[in-house]
Amino acid sequence: MKNPIDLHLRPSQENVYEILSLGKEMGFKLFGISFKDGLEIQRGSDRDIVSRIDITPKNQNHFYNALNRHRKNYIIISVKCFSKKIVQQAIKDNRVDIIYLPFSHKRNNAILGKKEARIARDSNIAYEINLTELIGQPKQVQLEVMKKAKKDIRNAQKFDIPIIASSGAQEPIMMREPRALVSLLEALNIEEENAINMVTNNPSEIITRNTEKIKSKFYSPWVRRVL
Amino acid sequence: MGQEGLIIPVRTTRRRYVFFRIRGPLKTQKEIVNRTIKCTITKLFGITGLSEINPKLIRYNEKQSEGILFTNHNEVWRLRSALAYITKIEDEVSAFQVLKVSGTMRSLGIIKSQRV
User: Fold this and answer.
1) Which of A12, A49, A149, B94 pairs with A23 at a CA distance of 20 to 30 A?
2) From CA A56, how far away is CA A70, in angstroms rounded?
3) What is the rounded CA–CA span in Å between residue A88 and residue A84?
């Protein structure tokens, strides 16, 4: 597998270096670190890191304010959607890179339906699966989680939305090697080739596109400043 | 050409040896590791899945928490996903990490170094 990327790590200040070294040992080439308040990483060790922020909007105003504040500062902006309204806002805005719908919580009808999937495809937004949510759940919760995951993935694949698979690890013990992520995706009825793309090509494309985006010459997807 | 009587021995199943390490605070016994793997496979793929994967814990080093599992080459992905799925062994937070998959024990390169 060429250049696997774990685009979603949520470390604390205490375990950030441990997580990064374990990830490198497992074979990951690049890491997306979700920056929370106070998380700092020393210079020199940030070469393999992509800055990312997870927005959990409470309402529409909070969503727009957060986007305006963070777009220029982070390479990846992900929106954690707990309600259908937020999903509908997030998929229309092309400043958002990734939408993430937690499986294990009550989502208040926040699903990636066919209608949402169609809009998300036009806005070039990726859909993310955090595999820590799929593992280690009690049996009853597990059934629900698997069902939701399969449904969302089916809709995303039907409308050609890029899917990203990441670990979502908060602690080193929750990290899995790239091949293990692929195998877990295969257990969700995803073909091997597609599963590999979810760990390698899809995240890589987003990073390349967004590095361009935060440059000063970028104005909108088809418009660049020339003067 | 009169070769009907000639029987060439062919190995029908292609074997795979999976070398793994357990990351966690405790040293676990071989039986417990074996039981945990089989329980997880049954939870994920059912009894039919367990019979198809048919994992065998060939060797296990309790000191280093490293071992070798044996399975059919078609079922490696299922075994891998089951190992990735494990988050606890005997109520202690642990994780399995697959270090190498190979067709022969020798090419795993660990027998010579006497790690397992």
Assistant:
1) A149
2) 13
3) 6
Scan for tokens 């209608």, then name that residue. A115
CA-to-CA separations, A221 to A123, A156, A158, A210, in angstroms, rounded: 10, 22, 24, 10
Identity of the residue in B84, B88, B94 whose CB atom sits nearest the CB atom of A184: B84
pLDDT digits (tens, 9 = 90+) for B24-80: 887 889 999 999 999 999 999 999 999 999 999 999 999 889 999 999 999 999 999
Residue of chain B with shortest Cα separation from A192: B77
Q: Is the ipTM of this complex over 0.90?
A: no
**Contact assignment for A173 to B94 by CB distance below 8 Å:** yes
Q: Do B43 and A176 touch (CB under 8 A)?
A: no
Q: Which residues of A118-157 are buried (b: 16+ CB within 10 A; e: fewer)?
A: eebbebebbbbbbbbbbbebeeeebeebbebbeebbebbe
Q: Retrieve residue A146's tokens.
A: 């698997």
d(CA A96, CA A119): 13
Biggest distance spanned by C-alpha atoms of chain A? 59
The two three-digit tokens of residue A204, written as one number = 């890589």
